[in-house]
Specification:
This protein is α/β, with parallel strands linked by helices. The radius of gyration is 19 Å and the shape is globular. A hairpin with a 5-residue loop joins strand 3 and strand 4. It has ten helices and seven strands. The model has no long low-confidence stretch (mean pLDDT about 95). Strands 4-3-2-1-5-6-7 form a seven-stranded mixed sheet, sandwiched between helices. Helix 2 packs across helix 3, helix 5 runs parallel beside helix 10 and helix 7 runs parallel beside helix 8.
């Protein structure tokens, strides 16, 4: 029997890392405080009635130029290497992969983030992901960032779920993802997806995954009561299946939930195969 593929899809900021990735070096390098940067970004978005994602990307670009900073992919990755991760994140992927292998499941990991793919690529966990779906810049012939290339807001995030569902790894594609495809031909059925998120931009994805039979997990920083309350509200509103702290160490609640879901998916796949056989 073909081993089922289980897709673990993660938001990044606030989900795998305790903060927005720009807060771990970039904002300090342009001489601003964290509140100053986000207040200015929000002001641009409100004043122009514009996208919050495009506004923060514009501000990063303008402030870098103002401070004589080059913005090449290597510069973004250097800032990405400074991003902090929650407890257990570095060891999480190999632990879950090993568990899946032992229980007849292939585990794949994906990022679905409004942050910058270039910075995520600089983190020590970048190689763990089959695909990083995130915002990014366009670059000139000298390798300098010149314009936003991809801006991932909460609605854009939902399209990537359907790309994962159909096995499409191109960000640019808008043809294959919209083509009709039989359910049994889709590479990763929604019931085989587990979505991790912490904020408002994740709510549509959480709801879609859960609605189509997958499993949504609202994570929260246990040191942030507001985040805990938000996660509890999502559970009460039945937008997610589980709520758990952002602790990814083996033996913790998050690990227990995910390994139990892997067991469930493996058993369900086996029963489905047997019913088709007989």
């Amino acid at each position: 029997m073909k081993h089922p593929i289980v897709a673990l899809v993660y938001d990044f900021d606030g989900t795998l890392s305790p903060g927005n990735m720009q807060e771990f070096g970039f904002i300090q390098a342009i001489g601003k405080s964290i509140p100053q940067f986000w207040e200015q970004s929000d002001s641009i978005a409100k004043g122009q009635d514009a996208s919050n994602i495009l506004s923060y990307m514009k501000l990063m670009f303008d402030e870098a130029q103002k401070n004589g900073m080059r913005l090449r992919k290597s510069d973004f990755r250097r800032f990405g290497s400074q991003v902090e991760l929650y407890p257990g994140v570095r060891e999480w992927f190999s632990a879950v992969n090993d568990y899946g292998n032992r229980h007849g499941v292939v585990v794949e990991h994906y990022i679905n983030s409004s942050g910058l793919s270039e910075m995520i690529e600089g983190t020590p966990i970048a190689s763990e992901f089959k695909k990083i779906f995130a915002s990014s810049f366009l670059y000139d012939e000298c390798g300098e960032a010149i314009w936003p290339g991809v801006a991932v807001d909460y609605t854009a995030k939902t399209q990537f779920l359907f790309k994962i569902n159909k096995g499409i790894l191109s960000v640019r594609d808008n043809k294959l993802v919209n083509e009709s495809q039989a359910e049994d031909k889709k590479r990763i059925p929604f019931p085989h997806m587990i979505y991790f998120g912490d904020g408002d931009t994740d709510v549509p994805c959480m709801k879609i995954v859960k609605m189509f039979g997958g499993h949504s997990i609202a994570v929260y920083n246990p040191e942030n009561e507001t985040k805990h309350a938000k996660a509890a509200t999502l559970l009460k509103q039945e937008r997610v299946n589980f709520v758990t702290p952002t602790d990814y160490r083996v033996g913790g609640r998050t690990y227990e939930i995910v390994t139990s879901l892997i067991d469930f998916i493996a058993a369900d796949s086996k029963l489905h195969a047997l019913s088709k056989k007989h």
